[in-house]
Write a sequence for this structure.
């Protein structure tokens, strides 16, 4: 990113209403409002649920999820980057694709998860031919993880960018979930190609 573009991004970020609101609401990031809107519109999280948040740092989604599931439920947050702890959230550091980290997540969840969330994004270069495959790779990882941990009927919420491979990924979701909805929350910047796939009704085909 050029210095000119970088300065423009900083100015826009500072003036962003969701950034300002996140500070007043004591939320970790503006992305918290993306999940909050999905929950409100689709009724995705309820008290007592078990949730895993992949690529959780800095914890914005985990924070919203913990409030939604309450003390009766729990949130497991996984990331290679450490971040400040959140009440009601257990952080498991490491790459969830690594067997030891995966085993820790399974042990902590008891092997039955209601919702898997992934707001993961690659380090964007601005070059679509580079960013799009990396985005799809992260989404595929979230889907693969979900198929191993979700209880029957469970839900996956995953970020994916529009472009090459988008339709194929949605088709793969439809093969193992009863319903798939594509949403763009208001907190998602209009110029961004990011979308959120909400896949509900996981069907266990013997994993």
């Amino acid at each position: 990113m050029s210095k000119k573009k970088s300065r423009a991004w900083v100015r826009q970020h500072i003036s962003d209403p969701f950034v300002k609101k996140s500070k007043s609401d004591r939320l970790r990031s503006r992305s918290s409002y993306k999940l909050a809107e999905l929950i409100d519109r689709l009724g995705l999280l309820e008290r007592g649920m078990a949730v895993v948040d992949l690529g959780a740092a800095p914890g914005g989604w985990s924070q919203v999820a913990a409030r939604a599931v309450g003390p009766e439920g729990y949130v497991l947050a996984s990331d290679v980057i450490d971040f400040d702890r959140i009440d009601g959230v257990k952080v498991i550091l490491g790459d969830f694709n690594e067997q030891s980290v995966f085993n820790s997540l399974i042990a902590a969840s008891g092997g039955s998860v209601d919702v898997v969330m992934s707001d993961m994004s690659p380090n964007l270069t601005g070059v679509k031919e580079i960013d799009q495959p990396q985005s799809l790779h992260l989404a595929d990882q979230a889907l693969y993880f979900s198929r191993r941990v979700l209880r029957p009927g469970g839900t996956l919420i995953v970020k994916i960018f529009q472009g090459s491979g988008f339709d194929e990924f949605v088709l793969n979701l439809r093969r193992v979930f009863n319903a798939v909805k594509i949403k763009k929350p208001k907190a998602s910047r209009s110029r961004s190609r990011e979308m959120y796939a909400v896949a509900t009704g996981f069907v266990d085909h013997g994993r």
Q: What stands out?
A: Confidence is low (pLDDT under 50) at residues 1-15. The two ends are 42 Å apart (CA to CA).
